[in-house]
Design goal:
Layout: E1 9-12, E2 21-24, H1 34-37, E3 43-47, H2 54-62, H3 68-74, H4 80-83, H5 88-98, E4 105-111, E5 128-131, E6 139-142, H6 143-155, E7 156-160, H7 165-177
Antiparallel strand pairs: 1-2, 3-7, 4-5, 4-6
Helix pairs in contact: 2-3
Length: 178
């Protein structure tokens, strides 16, 4: 099922020339209720691999690339080009285009003094807070490290378990028709 195929149709002047065409009502928004999205018993953790697209993940997990929208919707991804992890090659190009000096300092950070003050393992930076460059406990974070952390966090997604897929699709279709 394609994402917009279940949306009602509407007449819209796409080109602004007075000629209306019948198109899917793309102005509708359907989202997963937070209590469902936060129900860990319905979801499985998944690490997106290099070069993997939402269609690839949908094929692996649900048997069809057409369920890519379930992968995106489950993770609140509205723009797959900016919110989905980049391939390693695309990331290098992005870094070179965005920063004159990818190894330049992006910001400084230090461990918190209250709450959790230590790491829970590799890739865990939640215990750190930004600080001034002259803070004696502060350490530099390069542009590259900062952007790599963002990419790594985007690689860790949640997927609806396959046995709930059909119920999810039916509910989506019901909401799209309203």
């Amino acid at each position: 099922m394609r994402y917009f195929s279940k949306f009602p149709k509407m007449f819209y002047d796409v080109e602004g020339n007075g000629n209306e065409k019948l198109i899917p009502d793309i102005f509708r928004r359907i989202k997963i209720k937070d209590k469902i999205r936060d129900n860990i018993s319905l979801l499985d953790k998944y690490d997106v691999q290099d070069n993997e697209k939402p269609e690839d993940v949908a094929y692996k997990v649900y048997g069809s690339p057409e369920y890519y929208w379930v992968v995106l919707m489950t993770n609140k991804i509205q723009n797959r080009y900016f919110e989905w992890p980049l391939s390693n090659l695309a990331f290098e190009g992005y870094m070179n285009a965005k920063y004159d000096n990818p190894n330049g300092i992006h910001h400084y950070e230090k461990p918190q003094t209250s709450g959790r003050t230590t790491s829970n393992g590799p890739g865990d930076f939640d215990y750190l807070i930004e600080c001034n460059s002259d803070d004696p406990l502060g350490g530099p974070v390069t542009n590259y490290e900062y952007e790599q952390r963002l990419q790594d966090s985007r690689r860790q997604i949640m997927l609806l378990q396959p046995n709930f897929l059909q119920a999810f699709v039916k509910e989506f279709e019901r909401l799209a028709r309203q």
